[in-house]
Amino acid sequence: MIIESFQNEKVKYVTRLITDNRFRKKEDVFVVEGKQENERALQFGFEPKEFYIEESIFNNDLPTGKIHLVSPKIYEKIAYRGSSEGIIGIYKTKFASLKDFKPAEKSSVIIVESIEKPGNLGAILRSCEAFGIDALIVADTRVDFYNSNVIRSSVGCLFGMNIFSSSNNEVFEFLEDHHYNVYTTLMDESAEPLHFRDLKEKSAIAFGTEHSGLTEFWKQKGDNTIIPMSGSIDSLNLSNAVAICCYEILRQKMA
After folding, report:
1. pLDDT digits (tens, 9 = 90+) for 124-159
2. HSE of 173 in the Cβ direction (CA atoms, 13 Å)?
3. In sequence order, what are the residues at sequence separation of 6 or more whose Cβ sits closer than 8 angstroms to the Cβ of residue 159?
């Protein structure tokens, strides 16, 4: 049976999941659109509840499970991306605790404090995954990890990364307990350039918001570090700054 009516209860349900975050959280699910993103969600063990698939792409390569075939006009209504691949999955949410994370001997982690923009978080996840960062820790979280823009901007990297949410105090206790070398990114003329730091060893780099940087909490909590720049601008987009630092970690480890 192909769903063709806008009044169908399943269409109303998935539309509400996409447009109403409170309802989605109450249902304890999240929405994934796109072939690659759904493949990654399944690859990394997320539990699918159901799929909405545009009828013209249905074939044997699609995931097994509870599938609702929908007409092109219905898919266009429920899809939240401008261009799509005809597949939307609904999955059960799951969260990991920082207390359960057992870092490797030369683990590298990125910390972002009070990040607010889902697109930035997604881009940061993508860089962390690409450059082999062991975990992304979000301190004093202000963004929903399962926001559609996080999933879209990360191209599904959310599903394969260790990502944790915790308070500043809990994050710093974790770093101390596991003997990380901590590097902060405060605006300070005395800060050491990034490439002078030994990032081959167990290390954590902490970033603040684009608007105000790291809070007072992180002052004196680590060795202050900057990305050298030669232009007239004094800062970078947060996701770009994280990407540069992630690459430097990988470069040093591969040297």
Report:
1. 999 999 999 999 999 999 999 999 999 999 999 999
2. 7
3. 37, 40, 41, 43, 44, 46
pLDDT in tens, 93-104: 999 999 999 999
Q: Is the dihedral of CA 169, 174, 179, 180 positive or negative?
A: negative
Longest dimension (CA), the chain: 67
CA distances from 22 to 10, 17, 18, 30, 176 (A): 18, 9, 10, 11, 36
Query: Alpha carbon 221 to chain centroid distance?
Result: 25
144-147 contacts, C-beta under 8 A, 24 or more apart: 144/21, 144/25, 144/118, 145/95, 145/121, 146/24, 146/30, 146/93, 147/21, 147/118
- 80 vs 37: CA distance, rounded Å: 14
pLDDT band at 16 (very low <50, low <70, confident <90, very high): very high
218/146 Cα distance (integer angstroms): 27
More confident position, 5 or 210: 5
Q: What is the pTM of this model?
A: 0.92
Tokens of 230: 């030669």
Helix (H, G, I), strand (E, B) or coil at 14: helix
Q: Which residue has the tokens 């963004």?
A: 143
Confidence of residue 60 (pLDDT cuts 50, 70, 90): low
